[in-house]
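#struct-help
A.M.: can someone run this one for me? Single chain, 166 residues.
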Amino acid sequence: MIAPLSLSNLITVVLAVICLSTILPQARGNVVKIWRLAMPASLAMVEAIILLAAVYDADLATDAAWLAALLVGGVAGRTRGWALAMQVDQTSSLMRQRQSADGTIAASALVLLALTDFTSAALQEVWIDPGHLAAAAALFAGFLGSRALAMAVRTTRLPHHELHAA
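D.P.: on it. Structure tokens below:
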């Protein structure tokens, strides 16, 4: 069973699109403020929580799958965050990572998951089980969150480079 179309379905789509748009400057290798690392990760986590809350017939297995996906994504994101090449300007709180598609792929997957949830609710037809959608969103949210946290921790340890915001 699936819940009817509601504002939460629209909110997840909007959050996912904003998440994608806020991670694009990082992915392109642009200079960004360090605090901006948290924006896509926060939006992704809110989306994952909303999708979990929207599961109509939630049970312990659904919650366990969500948590397991969050942990697996977190481990992968931490690993990726420590491996990314980046430059940091500590005096201006700026950073630039090497161009990479991993964040864009994760954010794009969140957009697809949100659109799938929206379309399923609009048509009242389950395409993918809502519990599986929520778990997949948790996987990508965990990835983006741990990746951002690892990158933020690394900014305090990397040597200073003079960077200029565009």
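A.M.: thanks! The chain has five helices and three strands.
D.P.: also worth noting: The chain has a mean pLDDT of 92.
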